[in-house]
Structure formats: structure tokens, C-alpha cells
Specification:
The complex is a heterodimer of chains A (225) and B (608). Chain A has 225 residues and is mainly beta. Chain A has 1 helix and 11 strands; from the N terminus they run H-E-E-E-E-E-E-E-E-E-E-E. In chain A, strand 10 and strand 11 form a beta hairpin. The chains are: A mainly beta (225), B alpha+beta (608). At the A-B interface, helix 1, strand 2, strand 8, strand 9 and strand 10 of A face helix 12, helix 13 and helix 14 of B.
Chain lengths: 225, 608
Amino acid sequence: MRSRALAASALFAAALLAVGSPCPAQTGGPRLSAAAVAYRAEQRMRHLGTIHEQSGTWFGAEAQARLGAVTLRVSGLAGTLTGDTSVTNPDRDVRVSAISIGIRPAMWLEVGADVAARRVASPASTVITRLFGGHVGLAVALGVDGLSGNATVVYYPAADVTGDESLALAASGELGFSYAPPRAPIVLRLAYRFERYDFSGSALGPARLEQVRAVVAGLGIRLRR
Amino acid sequence: MRERCGRAHAAALVLWLGLTLASTAVAGAQESAASGLIARARQHIEDINPDSAATLLQQALDPRVGATIAEKLRAYVLYGVTELTAGRADGARRAFREALALDPTLRVDSLAELHESLVSTFEQERTALGATARPVPGVLELRVLPAGARVAVNGVVWGDRRREVPPGIHRVEVTARGYLPYTDSIKVGPGATLVRDIALVRLEDARLSVASVPWGIVYLDSERIGETPLFEQKVPAGAYTLRVESPSRAQPFVQMVALVPGQATSVAVPGAPASPSPPPLARADSLFRALDFDSAVAAYRRVVWDSAAAGGAALRAAAATRAAMAFGAMAAGRKDAALADSARAYFGVAFRTEPRYEPDSGEIGPEMRSAMEAARARVLGLVVEAPPDTLLPATGGRLVVAVRPTHQATVEFRIAREDGETLWTEARDAAGETRFEWDYHLSDGALPAPGRYAASVTARDAQGEVSPVVERLFSVQREVVDTLPHPPAPPATDFLPETVRVPRAGPGVLLAGVAIGAGTLMLEGALGNSSLNSGRSSGTGSYLVAGSVTVAAVIGFLAGHRTRGVPGNVLHNAQVRAQYQLDRDATIAENARRRQNAGVRFRFDEAP
């Protein structure tokens, strides 16, 4: 599975590089932006051979500061995932906090490090997962000033999970576009996000697979000093 | 007590002066009270008014009048004439007897015109008395000190000191300026020779000070005393006619002065108004003119040694010269060698300070000028003449400074930075003006840095006399040269657009949007767990986002623009930029060359 995913990602990136135009260079002083975001999320989880599904809406905010080739991002989300009210598929409260720092070796490419904390609480248990990884991002201009297509893949090789569980695989991907009108200090974002968390089995229970897909919409403001 | 003594002393002096003047008057004009009465009586006799004449003659013979023997003789003879005129022969004979008693040799032949029986009556009375007609005369010799004293016997001034005199009593008066007068009555017997030594008692000298502007020669009566300024010159006391003559004065200044023994007398000759003194000298000059030389010297010395005195070397030289004149006058008056040394020293100071100093012709007399010139010849001074402002080329020039010692000497010339580091020095024997030429390049060939420098000159003659160090400060600057302005940057109109915008973005935009859209649809399959997603399609959200991205890309493609390069314009613009750079580089090089060749300006400060 992993080799196929990596191959697809590489092919996708190559396609973008081949056909897209890099985003205009960011020059001048620091650029600040902040946006409110909303996630329409669906989670699918297999546990003890049974697949459970929850859905819900998360709200949050994210901010980024860009100084030259370095970009710092901070985000926070909170929301619920509603199950089927059974004992095995209860409602869950979800809170996600993340911070990342990236550097742009080229106008269209960004690589960086990510740290995220994910808290999922249900009446039966609370699982807190701390994720440490890196990301690769691509940005291509889409012809109109301020309109760009974006693709980002995050991979977390290290994680810390409360309880007796451990993570075998954690990764996420997000594609979409953003638009920052040249004459208005706002930014619009629409993206599709997919997250995968494979928990290994333990003495207390078997392995558990989780994945989240969400449509992300954001509206923010840009500040430039 | 002291005051009383002073008054007594003053009274004595006044009395002495009165006696001196009276004796001088009597001796000179043969005038006294008795003589006056006798003269008036004779006038009455000639007017045939014998009674009035007799009255006057009786007064003249009154012992209180103090008539001399000669006066008494004349009075008795004239009284006899009045008696003859009045017809009283007995009275006349009595008067003639009185006269013959005083001088048996008396003759009245010269008075015969006064009365026709005068001579006969007189001779009859002489016969009656048995007197000798021509007694044997005696000789009177007076040996007098001082030799030039004035000698009068019986009111007759003697040019010699030895004469025959009739036997009898003779009144002798000896006077000399600066001495107490001597008066005595000396009896000389018939045929006898009487020698009398008379040494007058010398009085203390008086002191006379005379100031005049312009200078002048001082005479007392007709004797030259000296030249102004005359300070406490000792002269014999007495009454004089003071005369001050000056070449600059049309009429001599004349004034009567009474010089009192032991006392100082000052005379300030009112003359042509002196030119206004510079402020530092004004007070000293006023003291000088007031003959307060001690205070004037102190004031002049302050000016001489006050380095901050405005007016510089000429003013200090003038002050030193006047101090020397004051010292010289005091030395002459007080006969003090130390003061004379001070005068010479201050003339030396004047010429060390300013070798070219020349006092006004009316300021200093020949004697003082002679002393001044002697000092000038002795002092080794330096005259340094530096060009006030010289612009020399960066290469090949020489800064020339002329140095003139006052006499033959070895002159050392030195140029140093303000911090004291010597840049150049040269020593040379010089008798007159010599020119020191400094090639102002340093040992490494560089020009001296802009800043302050000092040229100092000193000299030493064969006798070891060292001149004062003459230091002249100067500044070195590089000439400010005109430089070319940089060429203006080519205006924007000179450039052609290197790209052009054409409608429609590139097809890559469209393909990128499609690729992102496709990637969105593939994301779940590529990243998701197959065991969890088997048989499950992507969520509707992925289609929404994929479609949106694709639509956005289509819009971007349709509404966007792309740029296309214009190689011809790029080449044109490069040529414009290259030409501008060439012009700018040429200007910079030309300006650098001009600055490199800028001259060196030497500006000497004014001589202090």
C-alpha cells in the first residue's frame, strides 16, 4: 500500500511541476495572515472487525507568518464526531492543535517539520495522540493573481499515544486552492483533506484503523507590515 | 615736629632764594634803596629843588637804609651841593668833611656842573682838614672758588681777580650758581696788598625732569643739559631760563624755572598732540609723559611680557623701546649703571621681538637712538617672510620662505606637524636674506595630509648669540577642484518593454488545475487503507473540491495573462544600460584624475 501511495504522490507532484506555474515569489517584509476554518469531517474506523463511521463539523482558526523563505503556521480545531449512539460507536469530541515550520527552497516547493496533538474523547475513553513529522508542499499559480493550487502531504514517523496503544502509520494529505484578491486583504481557501492513523494492537486490545476525510473551507485576512 | 621743620626749611629756602635774586639784581642793575634815593635827589638838584633833594639824601644816609660807603660818599657830596645851592656854606663844608672822613682821596671834579663853587669849596675843606690829595693805592686780590664765580667789588663786577684799589673799606660780593653767595667788607691799607681766598659753599643740586613730545634738547640758560626724556637730571640750584628745542618744533619752548636745592622739578612741555596710543600702551604712555618712569616701566613691562597683548610684535617692541627709554632716562639722571643695563636689555628685547621695529622720528632723540641702534646691532633677530597664501601643483613645486637674520648667523629652518613630528629641516649660514625651499613631498612621495603645520626658524651667530625662535603656523589644504557631475540615469523613455502581456494564461494553468482536481479524487485511494476503504467510493467532498479547483483553473486560464519576452528590446535596453555605465565610469575616472592632480594650498597665519 505504501509503495503505491508513494508512487502516486510522486506522479502527482511531477504532473504539477510539469504543467503548473510556480507561485509568484514572496518578497518584502513579513506577511501575516489569519483565517477561520471549518471542517466538514467524516471519520471511518475499524475496530474488532467492525467498521464504525462518525461525522461532524469542526471549527477552528489558523494563522501563519511568512518571513522570506520561512513560514510558521499555528492552527487549532475543535468539534464533534457523531456516532450511532451505540456503546461501540459513541459520539466523540475532537480537538486538534498543530504547529509547523516550513522553508521554501523554491517558489513552488515547501518542506518543513510538523508537530500536532490530537485529542479524541468519548464516554469510554480519551485518546491523546502527539504526532511528530514533516511535510512537503507544492503551490502552483492558476493564471489569475492570488489564485493558486496547493497540495500538501504530511508524514508523521514518530508519535506518542496515551494508554497502551501505539501508532504504526500516521499521514495526511490536503489538496485544494486558495485565492487572495490583490486589492482586498482577504484570503479564501477550499481544500479536501484526508488523514490516516493505523494504531497497533496491544495487550488491552487489537489493532485499530482510523481515517478522516474532510472538506475544508477557510476565510481569513492578510496583514502585511 | 616734622611739619614744623619742613616749614622752617621751606622758609629758609625761600629766604635764600630771595637773597639770591636780590643780590643778583643789585649786582646786575646797581639798584638799591640808597641808590634810588640818591638818584632821585640828584634829579631834584638838577631841577634846582635843593630842599627836596636834601630830604632824600638824609633818608639815604639813615643807617637803617644800609647805604654802602660809595653811596654814602655820593650822598654827602650831593648834600653839600644842596647846601651850597641854598646859600648855606657852612652846611656844605660839614657835609664835605663827612665825605672826606670816609675817603680822604675823594674827588668831585666830575660833579662840577652841579654848582660853580662845588670843587673849590670841597678842595678848601680838604685843605682845611690837611688831607692828602692822592693817597697811595693798595692792591686787592681775590682767589675765588669756583673759578667761574661772579665777583663784584663796591658794586663793580670784576672780570679779573686782582686790581689796585684806593685804600679804604671795600664791599666784596661773590656769587655762583649752586653756591651760597658771599658778601664781606674788606679794608685795604695804602700801598698794601691784600689777598683773600674765598671758597663758596656748594648747595645741594636740584633735580630736573623734562618730558616733551616730540623729543627735544633741553637747555638751562644757554647750557645744554640733555635731551628729553630728561629724568631727575642733577643741576645746580638756581633760577634759570629753561629752553627746549626740537627739530619738529618751529618755536622753542621757553619757561623760567627756579630749581630748589635737593628738590625735584618736573616740566612737561606742551607740544604737538601725540598720536593716540594703542589701548595696551595708553596708560604706560600717560605715566611716561607724566615723568612717572618707575610706574611707566612697570606698565610697559606688562605689555612686553603679555603674550596675549593685542597688536602683536610691533606693539611689544614699542613697549620695550619705551621701557628702555625710561630706563635710559633714569640711568642718566640717577647715574645708575644697573638702570643703563636695563635700558640696553629692553632695547634688545624690542629687536628680538621685532627686528624691523622703528620708533617714530619724533619719539626718540639722537642720544637714545644711538643707544638703540647699538642694541639693534648686538641683538640677533630674525625676519621671516612667508607667503600668506600659496597654491602649488601636486608635483614639482616648492614652498619658499624667506628668512633674514639681522647679521651673519647659522639659520635653522624646521617644518613640523602640529603634533610636533618633524617633516623637514635645513640649516644654512646666512648673512642677508636667504630662501628656504621645501619640496613638500614626504619621504614616501605622498603629499602632506591636510591639517595644521608649523615652520619654526632660529639662528645662532658666531658669538653664540641665539635668536628667539620665530614660529609661523600654516595650514595645508588640497585645492578644491571642479569635478564633473555624474551623467543622469537614462530616463524610462529610453527603455523599451522587454516583455509583453498577452491574453490567456498558459495551458499549464489549465492542466495544473486538472491535475490538482484529479489528485483530490485520487487522494483517498492513494493515502487511505485499502482494507478500510475497499468497495467504498471517495466522498462527495472530494468531488466538490476537485470540481472547484478545476473550475478555478479554467477561470484562471481564461481571465489570466501571460508574458512573452521581446529579445530585440532586451538587447536595446542592455545597450542603453551599458552606455550609461561607460559614461559614469568615465566621469568617475576623470574626477579621480582631477582630485589626484589638485594643487596644494599653503596658508600661513598672520605673524603674531
